Amino acid sequence: MAVVAVAVVIALLAAFLTPLAVYLARRASPPPPPRRNLPPGSLGLPLIGQSLSLLRAMRRNTADRWLQDRIDRYGPVSKLSLFGAPTVLVAGPAANKVVFHHEALAPKQPRSLAAIIGRRNILELVGDDHRRVRGAILQFLRPDMVRRYVGKIDGEVRRHLAARWAGRRTVAVFPLMKTLAFDVIATLLFGLDRGAIREQLADAFDGMHEGLWTVPVDLPFTPFRRGLMASARARRLVEATVREKAAKLEHGESSPSDDLISCLLSLRDGGRQLLTEEEIVDNSVLALVAGHDTSAVLLTFMLRHLANDPATLAAMAQGKNSTLPSPDEHSEHEEIARGKRDGEALTWEDVAKMKLSWRVAQETLRMVPPVLGSFRRAPVDVEFEGYTIPRGWQIFWSPSVTHMDPAIFHEPTKFEPSRFDGTAAAAAYSFVPFGGGPRICPGMELARVETLVTAHYLVRHFRWKLCLGEEKNTFLRDPMPTPHDGLPVELDHIAPLC
After folding, report:
1. CA distance 7 to 10
2. Are 495 and 472 spatial neighbours (Cβ–Cβ below 8 Å)?
3. Which Pfam families does the record cross-reference, listed alphabetically (predicted)?
4. Which of 124, 173, 367, 489 satisfies CB 3.0 to 4.6 Å to 464 for a cystine?
5. 0.70 exceeded by the pTM?
């Protein structure tokens, strides 16, 4: 009985003293921190959030309106959930500057994209790893290296136009531009000859696209699963190519300047290979995706806009528009052609003269940026515009928000290449098709050369007219801008290809 009595007393004391101790501890400790000021908005349903709504808008070509509606409702900072993660949408030049330069922000792509491309690509790496891998890639893509490859690009463009455009009455532009972009990448970045391996890589690459921007549900018959399977096929082909290139380098049968993979394999740090095989494979796959999509979209929509702007097209090709700013730019492609012998390839110096054509390309990128938006991740709490972006959340920004802002670009729906003539430059962090800051697209110079070389031969040898009526002359995002029926055009051949 005594033992029971003692136990009862101890229990009573514990019941009494425990709340008292908790009370005194709370009195002695500082008050809990105030609740973080989260941006307005809703995270929506678990996992799905607003992902399906955004994807629907992209496929209906209303994504710009979807983004602007959120901005009109919540302001330039709002919370939502995209592709399985809590997200903060930020908009405007100030937001772009923060995204590009804030030291605390780390890159963050949708889980679907990282899983399909590979987790050691430069979009995912941070700190020293990012600087190391990006620096290695720039060994191949810096301007003084790209100038060496103008002749190779010229050869691919002329071969493509002669095989797939010459003699045709109508063509679908977008599929052909995708083929051309793939051929340039396969030659320049992978060093692949035409044949079975190249065709297998092209097939696997097409399958990867389906799963890049999807809800990352790995179940049979989902787009994500199909993307993963295609990625596995592509990676096996790239891995075999990497091993083949390594053997050729070891036996002195190739040069580091032959292609991107050979360049990356040849880089050393203290006698050891600078990049791992996984990093070479992941970043080769990334280069395939990024370089293919941006170039194909840009060239397709340049043709689309020029079909409706004969004055600008004439100024590029023959100098018939007297309203352009200076006589030496009236006929840039005609003047370049006059200085070439039949069959002679373009040079870096020729490309540098194509100023009007690049303004046309810039205006196309402004109106139809190939990428709707990109992501960053907050490793720590980040304060912006009076709101807290919590640690672990992702941040989404979109170039079209500033590109189509009438306060930045007057009459933004009007195609006006003179916006980029050097005297009417937009405000900083407003024209951002290639991103900005330390993570600006490393392939920007290569894309410029490929675009201008292709434009030179197109405007010199062809004229084109859109086949579809205005009601069908539209496009959707899947996830890249995709014109209706591939943008069919009727061709007029004005000069034979040499």
Report:
1. 5
2. no
3. p450
4. 489
5. yes
Whether 456 and 122 have beta carbons less than 8 Å apart is answered as no
Q: Is 370 exposed, middle or buried (0-12, 13-18, 19+ CB in 10 A)?
A: buried
Amino acid 457 reads: Y
Residue 189 structure tokens: 């970045």
Torsion, Cα of 426, 431, 435, 440 (10° steps)? -50
> 467 labelled as ligand-binding?
no
Choose among 433, 453, 435, 442: nearest CA to 183.
Answer: 453
Task: Determine the Cα–Cα distance for residues 465 and 461; give it in Å rounded to an integer.
Answer: 14
To which residue do tokens 């600087």 refer?
A: 131
The amino acid occupying position 219 is L
Cα–Cα dist 498/344, whole Å: 9
Report the first-to-last Cα separation within the chain, whole angstroms: 111
For residue 284, give both structure tokens.
């080769």
For tokens 């030179």, the residue is: 456
| Half-sphere CA count of 436, side-chain side, radius 13 A | 20
Average model confidence (pLDDT) across the chain: 86
- The reply to whether CATH 1.10.630.10 applies to domain 39-493 is yes
Q: Examine the pLDDT at 153 and tell me if it is beyond 90.
A: yes
Assess whether pLDDT exceeds 80 at residue 270.
yes
167/169 Cα distance (integer angstroms): 7
Cα–Cα dist 126/120, whole Å: 10
